[in-house]
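Example record

One chain of 420 residues, shown exactly as stored in the release files.
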Amino acid sequence: MSTLLTGLASGNQPKPEVLAQVGYILRTTAVYGNGKFGIHDFKPLEKTIDFGQSFSAQMCAVYLLRQFSLDLVDFLAKNRGGETAVGLHPKLQRYLGVGNATGLGMAPYLINHPCIVDQWLSTREQALATVLEGKIETNKFATLKQYLERAVKHLQQVVTINERQQQKNQTAVSELEELLKSVELTASTLCIWRELLKHYQYMSYEAQEVLIACLMALYPEKVDAFESLMNADETMEVPLGKKVGDIIRILEARYQWAIHTDFTDSNNAYWFWYRSENKEEPRLGVRGVEEGVEKELPLDIGRQARNLYLAMKQADESQKLSEFVLKHPKYRGIIRRVWNMGNKPMGDIQMNVLHKDALPMNLLRCKLSIFGATKFDPRSDRWVRITLFQGAPLFEEAHEAEWLFPLLPTEAEIQQGDEI
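Predicted C-alpha cells for this chain:
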C-alpha cells in the first residue's frame, strides 16, 4: 500500500501488473455470522428484507469495506501529495477487490452445517439444470464467446505461488482456447445446452466449471430466480415409526463411500481435528504422534456412519429405531444426520477428512466459490488467499454490466482518461 500511496501522491498511476500481484488493498480475516466473539448472530436477521438471505449481511459489509479501502487510498494520497496527487483510476479501482485468507476454520463449518451446504449446492444445481434444459440460441453465441475469452485472459492473469494451481490454470486455458475454436460449430448440431456441456465433459474440472459459469451468466433471468432459496432449515429429526432397516438402506444407498472405508488402516484415520486453546480455531494433529487426541472434534462423519452401519447389521432390521437408540444412545446424532442428509438431493460431503491425503483445501474452495471468490491462490494445503468483489461496480456506477472474470486494465486504457 505504501508504494501505491507514494505513486498517487506524486501524480502517477500504479502499474496494472503490480496490482495484479495481490488484487486488493484491505484483507478481511473471517466472515462470521454465528455470534462468535460478540458478533451478531444470523437468527435475528433471517426475517428482514435486506439481510434475510444467508451471508447477505456479511457480503454487504465486505463490499462496503472494498469501497472504503479505495476511498482511503485516495484520501491519504491527497493528504500526502496535495495538488500533485491523483486519485486511483476508476478502472484500477474496479479491478481491486477485498482480500480474504481462509484456513482450516471453514472446513468444520461445512461439516457441521450439512443442511446449508446441501441447500447451497442443490439450489445451484437446480439453477444450472434450468439453463441446461433450454434450447441452444444462436443469438447467444457472441456473448458466450466473449465470456469464454474473458475467462482465458482472467486465468492467464491470476498470480499464484501454488504449482498445482498454476498447472490447473494452464490446462484450463489450453482447453478453453480449443473450445473457442469449435464451440459454435459443435453447438450447431445440438438442440439443448446440456448436450453442449456433455460434449465437452472430457475437459478438466476447471475448464468445465468455467463453461458452466458462462452458460449460467447467459440467462440471469432464469438463475436469479433461485437467489431467494439459499436459506436452509437445519432441524434434524427422524419421523416416528422408523426401523433399523430404514437407516441401513440409506447407508447402503448414500454412504457407500463411508461404510466401505477401513478405518483400522492408519492412513484412513491419520489426522485428528481439535480446537486451539488460545484462538479457538480448528487445527490438525497427527494421530499417535501429536498430543490432544482426547480433545478430537467429531468431524469424522464417515467413521461414525461406518460404525453405525456395523452396529445396525448386528441388530434385527425390523427393530424399532427408538429401541435401538435406547440400547445404543451414542449413535443418536449420526442416526439423525444419516436420515436427514440421506433424504436430501446432495446429501453429506463424501470425504473422509481423517485420511492422510485429504485436502481441506477442496472444502474451502467449495464454499468460497458460492461467495463469488476470484484469484484462487492456495498458500499451502491448509489455507487459501482469494479476492471478493474484484471487478464489481463502484458505488457511483451501479449498473448491469457483466463483471464475470475480472480483467486487469492495460496501461493504454489507464491513459485514455477516467471514463467508466
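Notes: Residues 2-103+387-415 form one domain.
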